[in-house]
Amino acid sequence: MNYYQYPGQQYHYVRPKLLRGVVREIIIINVVVFVIMYLLRTQTFFLRYFGLVPQLVLKGYIWQLLTYLFIHGGFWHLFWNMFVLWMFGTEIENYWGRREFLKFYLLCGIGSGLITFLFSLNSSIPVVGASGAIYAVLVAFALMFPERYIYFYFLIPIRAKYFVWIIVAITFFATLSPNISNISHLTHLGGLAIGYIYLKRRTLLSHFTLRLPHIKWRLFRVRPWKHKSRPAKPRTPQYQTEETMREELDRILDQISHSGYDSLSEQEKTTLLLLSKYFADKERAKS
Fold this sequence. Notes:
Strand order of the largest sheet: 1-2-3
Mean pLDDT: 77
Radius of gyration: 20 Å
Oligomer: single chain
CATH topology of the largest domain: Rhomboid-like fold
């Protein structure tokens, strides 16, 4: 996986910006942990007590559901996970902001670890690596920018939406293979599933709607998606308060989650950029 581009821009590649934000901090933590492990030759200790060992989680080592995300078994394992995080996570963070991206990353990472734990309760084999969260980042990128091209293995151009389906198929069949360990592939598949469910939660929850005569009662306060061939004409946002600004930002992010980034009008893209920058700058000032 290398560069990605907008459709129609055959010779203009879009590269992530300089390493910054929460993506940079995640990468630094992973690299520091890896260096400490190998300089002090404490790989076995870190794998046992901070990797995800289902048998130990049953005994109360709950923190492993989080810490396994920052432990890697080798240099290339670390390199490729962090490379993909940089390539795709940087731009997603630019649109979502620091807090939302970190919440998504940790939620999907912990969730994929929980799925691995539930399906391998008696396993004593450590599971390590950020791959579950990384696969969720790939899903998010494909939903936000479905028409962009990713160069698979640096050679084959393929649209992001098809690329993720290929990854899903490979991962799914890998979990069914009797000749290899299913644990790591199950973690990958869990990250894919949780990332998709999280991003599509509004659409999924909208199906839990009970309609009674003269009464409309919703189990969840979720606005159902309006399926149209063309996106509705965007309303002009009234920025009287921060609350109205957040409402407009949420509306645009909902549209991206449902129809992809390319479904936005030029006005909505500009609004998204300005509002994301405003809240990111405000959050950065607080920290």
